[in-house]
Amino acid sequence: MSRLNDDSSLGNSRQWDAIWSDGDMWKASLQSQGLYVFPGKDLVIAFYSTNVPDDSSHRFLRPVATSGMFDK
């Protein structure tokens, strides 16, 4: 899972590119677009960007979502 810089996902399923044991789901798209859903925290991160050559935008999603910033 080099786009995310995270190898802890369980795999992919249906339309999602990665699913984690805590219920998080991630979907990547063209031109550095993405969607990250964390059902346990009612959190959705949707983003678009210019086509960054290294796709670095994706690498921030899981660390931000699991940082504790969005704990209820």
Give a structural overview.
The structure is a single chain. By secondary structure, this protein is mainly beta. The chain has one domain (1-53). Helix content is 7%, strand content 29%. It has one helix and five strands; from the N terminus they run βββββα. The chain has one helix spanning 61-65, and strands at 11-13, 16-19, 25-28, 34-38, 43-47. Strands 1-2-3-4-5 form a five-stranded antiparallel β-sheet. β4 and β5 form a beta hairpin. It is globular. This is Beta-lactamase-related domain-containing protein.
Q: Topology, pairings included?
A:
Layout: E1 11-13, E2 16-19, E3 25-28, E4 34-38, E5 43-47, H1 61-65
Antiparallel strand pairs: 1-2, 2-3, 3-4, 4-5
Question: Could you list some keywords that capture this structure?
Answer:
about 70 residues; mainly beta; five-stranded antiparallel β-sheet; 1 helix; 5 strands; globular
